[in-house]
Amino acid sequence: MTAPLRLGTRRSALALAQSTHVADALVAASGRQVELVPIVSEGDVSRASLAQLGGTGVFATRLREALLAGECDLLVHSLKDLPTTDPSGLTIAAIPVREDSRDVVVTRDGTPLHRLPPGSTVGTGSPRRVAQVRRHNPRLEVRDLRGNVDSRLGRVRDGELDAVVLAAAGLSRLDILDSEKFGFEQLGLDEWPTAAGQGALAVETRTDAASDLLDALAALDHAATRIAVTAERTVLAELEAGCHAPVGVHAELRGGELRVRAIVYAPSGDRRLAVDRTESVDRGYIRLQGSGNGADAADGTDPIVRARGIGHAVAHRLLERGAAGLVPRESAP
Fold first, then answer.
1. Rounded Cα distance, 116 and 36, in Å
2. What share of the chain is helix, strand, coil (3-state, %, to 5)?
3. Same domain (yes/no): 117, 78
4. In what helix (H) or strand (E) does residue 38 lie, and over which residues does it extend?
5. Confidence band for 295, pLDDT divided at 50, 70 and 90
């Protein structure tokens, strides 16, 4: 009898929901059983802020150590939590179709963020969201927030906070968006771009994994999602910014056109730099929004290569306009 595949996962309700979703798909693709292997990361046990812990990779490091040590056969991550550089010996073998990549403001009564009265308290642990909240409504008081989704929602329910900002994908995967206990405001991606890779999952395994596992994982990969998040993560990498830096970036592939919109914020929210660029990944034709000159021709035919190219171009334009003075450089490994 073939041994079950061992899927390493964090212990939180959201991580388990995400891992179960991937496990079910992998069972269907491979015909093998999958068992979950809970793993505790530093980010799960420390109560320090994400900035104090170093941000990037705080949830992934221990899981990756377990994978390399043979304690499990594959991992499921929230892609937005991963560093942009892949560690030696590991590969992201599948990026399934992306969930909603927007942020959501959660309140007790559904009051929109811009209408919350002066002094209202909003919780988030993300420097990007801090800057966006301050820009959206500078009269609000932003408080650092850690903990799982339930604990964050509990602080709103109990009146300790007036609002929290969370990822729509996580709320959807936990079946919370339909709850009548809270009010939800979906934030548009044009003015509120989210973290690189938000809403997407990354299924990681060893580069020397068995071919049947790699083939099964390849069946879970969603090409349009991989192209989009490749562009987003390239922007972050080229800016040398961590996944918790005040950078919002969103890419979307429609009809062969890849649009990337990125905004870099000052931590206070009083300044921002934005770039919006679109490339036809079918023909290599690039145009800046508002022009149509097509002067920048992309080489090659691989859409992943082109996604990296447009991500590089977006980051280069941001740096030309002074983004380096706004974005803290990556310090975590």
1. 42
2. 35, 25, 45
3. no
4. strand 34-38
5. very low
Q: What is the pLDDT of residues 106-115, one digit of tens each?
A: 999 999 999 9
Q: What is the CATH number of the domain that holds 257?
A: 3.30.160.40
Residue 164 has φ and ψ, to the nearest 5°, of -135, 155
| pLDDT for 231 | 97
Tokens at 254, concatenated:
């429609």
Active site residues: 81
> Which range of residues forms the domain containing residue 162?
103-186
**What is the reported pTM?**
0.88
317 in any annotated domain: yes
Contact 100, 168 (CB under 8 A): yes
Residue 305 phi/psi, 5° resolution? -60, -40
253-275 pLDDT, tens digit per residue, is 998 999 999 999 998 888 999 99
Alpha helices (runs of H) in 174-286, residue ranges in sequence order:
211-218, 223-238
Residue type, 67: L
Residues 119 and 157 in one domain: yes
For the record, the structure tokens of 30 come out as 């491979």
Strands 5-9 vs 34-38: parallel, antiparallel or unpaired? parallel
**Which residues 6+ apart lie within 8 Å of 203 measured at CB?**
22, 74, 75, 76, 92, 93, 94, 95, 96, 217, 220
CATH value at residue 111: 3.40.190.10
Range name among 3-17, 93-107, 182-196, 295-309 with the lowest pLDDT average: 295-309
Q: What is d(CA 129, CA 101) in angstroms, rounded to the nearest whole number?
A: 14
The label of the residue with tokens 């987003």 reads 232
